[in-house]
Amino acid sequence: MSAVPAPPFVVAALYQFRALSDPAGLRARLLALGQEEGLCGTLIVAHEGLNGTVAGSREGIDRLRTFLHAEGFDRLEDKESSAIEAPFKRFKVRLKTEIVTMGVPVEPTSQAGQYVAPQDWNDLITAPDVVVIDTRNRYEVKAGTFEGAVNPDIDSFREFPAWLDAHEHELAGKRVAMFCTGGIRCEKSTSLLRARGYSDVFHLQGGILKYLEDVPETDSRWQGECFVFDGRVTVGHGLKEGDTTMCHSCGWPLTPEEREHAHYEEGVSCGHCFEQTTAAQKAAFRDRQRLYDAQAT
C-alpha cells in the first residue's frame, strides 16, 4: 500500500514579544521573503514584536523560521499544522502599534502570568479555587471552549480591559487561568491582571492549538472545535480540519446542523444574521456568491 502524501500546505502560527527598533525595515525584508517563497497569510510587525499565521511549502516555512531566528527571534512561540488547500488568498505584512491590540499598555515580556503546559492544564482548571477565563471573541467561543470557562462575551480583544473592570470583584481570592487560540492574547491579559496586583495568574502555554495537538482526545476537557483565522475555519483534536464553515455575511461559525437552518443560504445569510440584513444586502451577497462560484469552476 502506498503512503498517503502529506498535505501540501504547512501552516505556522507564531509570535514573540521582542523590542524592535526598525519594524518597517523588518516588514520590507519579510515581504520580500514571503513573495519569493510563495507564502500566504498575514504577519503583523510592531515595536513590541511579531505575530501572525502563514502557510506555504515545507521549504518556505523552514526558511521563514531560519530568517526570523537570524533576526533575533530566538524564543518564538510556534505551532504548526497543515491544510489541503491554501488557507489564505495572499501574503501580507502589516505595520501596527501592537501585534495584538488590547489598547492598554502592559509589559508582557516581564509581567505575563505563569505558563502552564498542556499536559498540566486539566489539573489546574478543575481545581475549585480557579476561575478559568476564555479571552477570545464571542464568535470564537461559539465554535468551542473549555468546560466551565467564563465567556466575557466580547466582540474584540479591545473590550477585555472594560470587561475586567466590571468583573474584577468576581476574581477576589481566586487563582485565575486564562487561555486563547495560540497564547498571544493571554500574554497581555495576564500582564494586565498582574499589573493590577493579582499574583496567582496562569495561562495555557501554546494556547488551545498546542493543547489540541498534545492532549489525547480521550483526556481532553475541550468541547467543540477551535476557531482559526484562515480558510479552514476550525480545527479539532490533532489539529485536524474541523466540520465548521463560516457565514460570509456575518462571520459566524456554523456547524453542519446550523447549515440546515431555513435561513441559511451560502454566502448570503444564516440563522444568526438573517434578520440583520436587508433584502437589498442579501441580493448583493447573492451576486457576490455567484461571482465566487463562477471563479471556482
Automatic annotation (TrEMBL):
<dbReference type="Pfam" id="PF00581">
    <property type="entry name" value="Rhodanese"/>
</dbReference>
<keyword id="KW-0819">tRNA processing</keyword>
<dbReference type="GO" id="GO:0006400">
    <property type="term" value="P:tRNA modification"/>
</dbReference>
<dbReference type="InterPro" id="IPR001763">
    <property type="entry name" value="Rhodanese-like_dom"/>
</dbReference>
<dbReference type="InterPro" id="IPR036873">
    <property type="entry name" value="Rhodanese-like_dom_sf"/>
</dbReference>
<dbReference type="Pfam" id="PF17773">
    <property type="entry name" value="UPF0176_N"/>
</dbReference>
<keyword id="KW-0560">Oxidoreductase</keyword>
<dbReference type="InterPro" id="IPR020936">
    <property type="entry name" value="TrhO"/>
</dbReference>
<comment type="similarity">
    <text>Belongs to the TrhO family.</text>
</comment>
<dbReference type="InterPro" id="IPR040503">
    <property type="entry name" value="TRHO_N"/>
</dbReference>
<comment type="function">
    <text>Catalyzes oxygen-dependent 5-hydroxyuridine (ho5U) modification at position 34 in tRNAs.</text>
</comment>
<protein>
    <recommendedName>
        <fullName>tRNA uridine(34) hydroxylase</fullName>
        <ecNumber>1.14.-.-</ecNumber>
    </recommendedName>
</protein>
<feature type="domain" description="Rhodanese">
    <location>
        <begin position="126"/>
        <end position="220"/>
    </location>
</feature>
<dbReference type="GO" id="GO:0016705">
    <property type="term" value="F:oxidoreductase activity, acting on paired donors, with incorporation or reduction of molecular oxygen"/>
</dbReference>
